[in-house]
Amino acid sequence: MSACPVVYGLASCSDADLEWLRSVSGPLNPPCVVVARISAECLRRLEPLRSGGLRVVWADEAEGRLVEVLEEFGRPNPDPMRRLGLRLLSDPSFRPPVREAISRVCGLHDDPSATRFVPASSVHRLAGQVNLAGSTLRQYWREDAPLRCRLKELMNWAVLLWAVRARAGAGWAAIADQVGLRRRTLEINFTRFAGCTLAAAAEDPERVVGRFSEWVDSVWEPRPANGSKRNDPDPTRAPVEQAT
After folding, report:
1. pLDDT at position 244, please?
2. Three-state secondary structure call for residue 16
3. I need a labelling partner for 219 at 20 to 30 A (CA). Which of 64, 145, 180, 233 fits?
4. Is the pLDDT higher at 241 or at 57?
């Protein structure tokens, strides 16, 4: 989860190469930089893959450009929720309230009045932070986000991952209180989403991170390359399309 950006060199741009690239550029995978020779075929095939987690550097410019691109990624980020948030926000098509909601859920929002980040546990509270009604925010989420899940599910995962990190300095009851939940509710959410008890989560935090990664793979649905809306039915696409 804390791996630095990975650089790949492509000798060709075949269909097999593209499928392999998609397999190594999943939503929680380390950032990927592809170096390839520039050609009309490479331009056509690689341009649609450009995103916040995958960059393309042409071989002729690699000597000066590659270091610059790597520096843009900055220091490795071990927080998988923040990594997912950055990947989501690399899509510029979201409505501003949805972008702000993603920033807040994933801990990317800069709030000068906050001493430290604590995720919201209710859609109603989050909606108030982005100046929308809860029903409107849910609707915008369904229409915009490339995750086949309810907004509440993502928020639950944000709470669990935050709670595991916060566990080092506080008890479970105090942690639950900070996010406006009962300890029993927090325990139920760990069992339901991460498949473990509070004691197991404290003993093995990476188990929770691993289950989160599996969940993201199961709900991730990138925007179609042809620009069609995600909710449009496509009889040629399999019911579940995962990035691994």
Report:
1. 30
2. helix
3. 180
4. 57
Neighbouring residues of 197: CB distance < 8 A, sequence distance ≥ 6: 187, 190, 191
Strands (E) in 11-143, as ranges, are: 32-36, 54-58
Residue pair 151/123 in contact by the 8 Å Cβ criterion: yes
**Sequential DSSP letters for 44-81:** HHHGGG-BTTEEEEEGGGHHHHHHHHHHHH-S----HH
Greatest mean pLDDT among 89-103, 179-193, 216-230 lies in: 179-193
Cβ neighbours for 15, distance < 8 A, ≥ 6 positions apart = none
Q: What stretch of H or E contains 9?
A: strand 6-10
Q: In Å, what is the CA distance from 155 to each residue of 10, 18, 204, 226?
A: 38, 32, 21, 30
| Pairing state between β 54-58 and 6-10 | unpaired
Distance CA 174, CA 180 (A): 10
